[in-house]
From TrEMBL:
Residues that span the membrane, as ranges: 6-28, 40-66, 72-90, 160-180
UniProt entry keywords in alphabetical sequence: Cell membrane, Membrane, Transmembrane, Transmembrane helix
Keyword set includes Lipoprotein: no
Source superkingdom: Bacteria
Species the sequence originates in: Shinella granuli
InterPro entries: LeuE-type (IPR001123)
Name of a matching Pfam family: LysE
One GO term describing the cellular component: plasma membrane
Classification of source organism: Bacteria, Pseudomonadati, Pseudomonadota, Alphaproteobacteria, Hyphomicrobiales
Name the record gives this protein: RhtB (Resistance to homoserine/threonine) family protein
């Protein structure tokens, strides 16, 4: 048991840096918080966490090795990710001024307007699932930190802990970004935020397009 706790601690020490590093997931949650409100951002956070388990699952089952060794499969995943990031980037650039009033936010959270839970979850899941970087990230840390003799059930347990921490981090971001003071500040700059986030998503897509399998 102590060996498993040591493995988990080592995984989390590495994963902590990956959680807080800026990327498409953080940009997605921040934009969801600002434009669609707390509920949508939290649901999106769960979508991202669920997607992490998707990556962990195929890594543990060995599919990550196949993808990492196949340029063809890697490129399929990569270009799907590029297309998705550029698509949401263009949508953000074309978005009009968002209504961030208290009434609008409440309407969205009550399900009477705004973004549906399914769409919010799907945005988070796809933003993470269509990024090939986790293939190499989880493949590398699981192969270097986790023993080959560690039971599969324990490895899945590691994944659940990491997914829970990821969700908790992004829920925290969602709560912070939707406080009254933050919302009032962003309400005055909503169009510029959309334009900035759109450029960020497109830039991330271009960066992903230049990534090569190692």
């Amino acid at each position: 048991m102590s060996n498993y706790l040591l493995e988990l601690a080592s995984l989390m020490a590495i994963f902590a840096f990956a959680i807080v590093s800026p990327g498409a997931d953080l940009a997605m949650v921040m934009r969801q918080s600002i434009v669609h409100g707390r509920r949508a951002a939290i649901v999106t956070s769960f979508g991202i966490g669920t997607s992490l388990m998707f990556h962990v699952t195929y890594t543990i089952l060995g599919l990550g090795i196949i993808i990492s060794q196949s340029i063809y499969l890697f490129n399929i995943v990569k270009w799907c990710g590029v297309a998705y990031l550029v698509y949401i980037g263009i949508k953000a650039l074309r978005a009009g001024k968002a209504d961030l009033s208290v009434e609008a936010v409440k309407g969205g959270e009550d399900g009477k307007g705004g973004q549906s839970a399914v769409r919010a979850f799907g945005l988070g899941f796809l933003a993470n699932a269509l990024n090939p970087k986790p293939v190499f990230f989880f493949l590398s840390i699981f192969s270097t930190v986790v023993s080959a003799h560690t039971p599969i059930a324990i490895k899945f347990g590691y994944g659940l802990v990491m997914a829970t921490c990821l969700i908790a981090w992004f829920v925290g971001v969602s709560l912070f970004m939707t406080t009254p003071k933050m919302r009032a500040a962003f309400a005055r700059m909503s169009q510029w935020i959309d334009r900035a986030s759109g450029l960020v998503f497109i830039a991330l897509g271009i960066k992903l397009a230049t990534e090569k399998a190692h």
